Here is the input.
Amino acid sequence: MTRETLLALLNEYSPYNTLESKMHNEMLLFVGQHEDCFLRSNLKGQVTGSAWILDYDHRHVLLVHHAKLDKWLQPGGHTDGNANVFEVALKEAKEETGLQSLVSFGEEIFDIDVHTIPTHKNVPEHKHFDIRYIFEADIRETPQINEESKDWKWVALEEVKNLNSDASVLRMVEKTYEIG
Here is the structure.
């Protein structure tokens, strides 16, 4: 995948609501204007990839307690130069959960989000242009967290709001109900 391929995929993507539409436009502009959009050296922001991991019945999602941000989130991370964002989301999901049963639900973009990352050590505040994909895994398998996370939980969709009430996370919950 190349930056041009990602732009084509983003152009084909239909945002879910007004907020996602605004972020979609911002992401198209950022990726279109920055050849280095996949590199951490771009201090304005970077494209990231993340995994919305559902159980086979689509009633639970796996969330990890992110160590740096101190939030319950889906696994994901920096592309570090890899323009194949789906591949990045899969790699991050495997690294952050250790799930052996992890399978792709498809390579279509599930959700997009643009969010600000606060200043941390010598890295100034910047944006993450996150592209999210759906994966499935066996809820009976015990995830193995790495140093980036403090904990993990399989969370019933109706309980996600109790751990993270961010609009982008709740939007993914709504979309999950729609796919069944």
Notes: The mean pLDDT is 94. The first helix runs from residue 3 to 12. The domain at 3-179 is CATH 3.90.79.10 (Nucleoside Triphosphate Pyrophosphohydrolase).
